[in-house]
Amino acid sequence: MVTMSTTSYQRFLWAVGHRVQMLRKSRGLSQEQLAEQLGMDRVSIGYIEQGRRSPKLSTLYALAGTLGVRVCDIFDGLEGKAQTDVSASRRAALALDMNRDDADEPERSPSL
Fold this sequence. Notes:
The protein has helices at residues 6-26, 31-38, 42-49, 57-67, 71-75, 78-84, 88-98. The chain has a domain at 6-82: 434 Repressor (Amino-terminal Domain) (Orthogonal Bundle). It is globular. It is mainly α. α2 packs across α3 (42-49). The two termini are 14 Å apart. Helix content is 63%, strand content 0%. It comes from Bifidobacterium saguini DSM 23967. Keywords: DNA-binding. InterPro entries: Cro/C1-type_HTH, Lambda_DNA-bd_dom_sf, TransReg_Diox_bact_type. One of its GO terms (cellular component) is cytosol. GO terms for molecular function: DNA binding; DNA-binding transcription factor activity.
């Protein structure tokens, strides 16, 4: 089984959202227009673009079709992008989160 750390998954979601946002903007669509074409609300599109929501496969399929790309185009090259194309403020926020004092965290039992 392949596992991904929470931080890596957050970066991946951010990169997917950023890709969706770039594709939407390159088509001259607002979040509202894209949401309307998909039968979704604008807030859901915003959450996907911000990496705050993990879209279902059916949503990705609909997004790709509406944006005129293949689903795989949304993911193409994201492995490296998720690691390197994070804004400075996002990197700083992630660094602060990773460098918290362990005393601030409740003690957890080891996972098996």
